[in-house]
Amino acid sequence: MARHLITSALPYINGIKHLGNLVGSQLPADLFARYLRARGHEVMFICATDEHGTPAELAAARTGEPVAEYCARMHGVQSELARGFGLSFDHYGRSSSDQNRALTQHFAGRLADNDLIREVSERQVYSIDDGRFLPDRYIEGTCPNCGYDRARGDQCENCTKQLDPTDLIDPRSAISGSTNLEVRETKHLYLRQSTLKGDIATWIDGKNDWPILTTSIAKKWLNDGDGLQDRGITRDLDWGVPVKRGDQDWPGMEGKVFYVWFDAPIEYIGATAEWADSNGGDWESWWRTDKGAGDVTYTQFMGKDNVPFHTLSFPATIIGSDEPWKLVDYIKSFNYLTYDGGQFSTSQGRGVFMDDALEILPADYWRWWLLSHAPESGDSEFTWDNFQQSVNKDLADVLGNFVSRITKFCRSKFGETVPEGGEYGPAETALIGAMTARIRAYEGHMQAMEVRKSAAELRAIWVLGNEYLQNAAPWATFKTEPEKAAMQVRLGLNLIRLYAVLSSPFIPFSAKAMANAMNADDTWPDDVQQALTTLPPGHAFTTPDNLFAKITDDQRAEWEERFNGTRS
Ligand SMILES: Nc1ncnc2c1ncn2[C@@H]1O[C@H](COP(=O)(O)OP(=O)(O)OP(=O)(O)O)[C@@H](O)[C@H]1O
Ligand SMILES: [Zn+2]
């Protein structure tokens, strides 16, 4: 048994996540966590909402709630949806927690002690009417690059150019619209990442087994242009972790908070501390190599835009602290899922969002499609047509049909108990051989986090059973050799149990329904031949309702229409 720490990129708090967010981080992390648990490993699976930063404040301002209340409410909404999708977090925390606040201040203090923080005096736009600075998205104006008149202080959405608030032409406050602005001097803390460049480069260079997507992004930021740059880690905002040096005040930094990207990854640790505080566990044994985390394997999951922060900034914080914190061992990154010829977009409400998805179909339908089409080697596209085909073929025709045929046939001829009699012949021996080879391949892909290959292998395992059933044809055998038919059905019922165990990381709800129907445990099939005798003659089962309903053409057309615009 090994110990595995798994984290998913933190979903941002300002709204409900879309299917792209789900398949780019939380869902594959859940797949891996469920697989490792099924193999008997000790797993700590952590996620949390990322709650600081200007988009949260602006979203709260739109609903009229105080930002802390807005975040608490949205955390509740996201937790509920996570449960609905079967995301099996050991803890789903909040980056605004007391634990994260203390840890963030602690890291900043350590970095300062190690001379890795410098103070920079910079010019920022100040709104006289609002009585505050206007960082990032708090300011809008005309883009100096393309002339778009609603560019934001951090980026122009039209031409994607990264901006500084002082670059904007005709700037105005995003809060009040006021143009009564001036540029004022303000002091900020910068993390001296450039000093750590050598250490980080050496660390990345040692990661030969990481996905190329991960290392290529890291190396680009490390080496392109002037190389790794120092980064501002504070902001003139109210909402966030107050700037402190450990538990001491930081002279000159009064009223400022840490930048959201500084405190968000620290919340992986913070959320584990939250877990420990509510469950009585030992969080340090997962994170401190001097306190038991030496044997932990740590894997992170995220979409490609989050890679720089996880390969450079967060490691700079960890390495720079010069304390024995656990560094990530493997970063599984994803390309983007696109929606029907365009991008998923939270700000524009484009695509399918987690709440709507669960309203129209059960979670397993989405889990299966998303994981079997995960954007691993390149972007992948969601289309309703592809979704319908994949659900109908893989889930309904292959798996669902197998379960239904075996159980219904058995019930009609032998009753709802596993029948006895008959001996394996060559067909069964061949099946067990083929099944064993495929299951071992499946394990290899799952261990390597090859999500699509794992899905393809699982599907092939389902197909093997279907082909066996088609050839064995117990409904025909029964007429002349009832004992042989009994053996075939017994094997089929045991295959259902086997499928429940193997499929549970992908489709946990349906797997549970299958296991419940078979009154079976969830022991992993280390020995396939033996696993197929788990349900002995006389063992009672119940015939499950149809596991999967097919998506009709009418439904597909209706949903295509319903989700082809944007939602507010
Ligand atoms: N279309 C996508 N496909 C795959 N992963 C995505 C996609 N969009 C975002 N992600 C990933 O989803 C995770 C959660 O992201 P987050 O909640 O911060 O939203 P985001 O990146 O701001 O996306 P959006 O701008 O669409 O709201 C991150 O790991 C991010 O990289
Ligand atoms: Zn522009």
From TrEMBL:
Residue span, Methionyl/Leucyl tRNA synthetase domain: 4-406
Which cofactors is this protein said to need?
Zn(2+)
Location(s), subcellular = Cytoplasm
**Motif position, 'KMSKS' region:** 343-347
The GO annotation for biological process reads:
methionyl-tRNA aminoacylation
What HAMAP family does this protein map onto?
Answer: Met_tRNA_synth_type1 (MF_00098)
How does the record describe its quaternary structure? Monomer.
Descriptive protein name: Methionine--tRNA ligase
Q: What is the lineage of its organism?
A: Bacteria, Pseudomonadati, Pseudomonadota, Alphaproteobacteria, Rhodobacterales
Source gene? metG
